[in-house]
Amino acid sequence: MNQAELILCNLNEIRRRSSILWSSLPDELINWQPDSHAMSAIQMVRHVLEADYGWNMIIKGESMENYRTPWENRPLTSVQEELEFSAPYRKQFLQTIQNFSESELKSTEIIHPGNGQKKVLGPYLMRIGYHEAVHAGQFISYLREMNIPRPMIWD
To answer: pTM of the prediction?
Structure first.
């Protein structure tokens, strides 16, 4: 496997496990949140799914100055609807990664708009996976607090 294939494998495995977790959330509890300052369960799902759209812009070198998300003004209704709506954006994001050469992954510098830090593209993509994995762990704690059985994701 080359570097892009390994990164894609990692991102796909993380998303597969996140989807299992998210799909265990009953529709009647999508708005649950541990406190008034935290994201609700469905907001966290959207946050992770919506991020693919922004990540794709960043790794393609597009400006985030006038960032507008396709999720803007879209109601939060269910995990399944969020997954379905996000699918084409996820596909575009993964395709962008697949098209990078080994050389680009090792030498392209990305400036993350949130903090202005420079990162090399390959490691930056791995950090994107880490972002989702952290939220998966957070979601597990939400499920625990809601007394919902946590699905087995360690296959």
So the answer is: 0.94
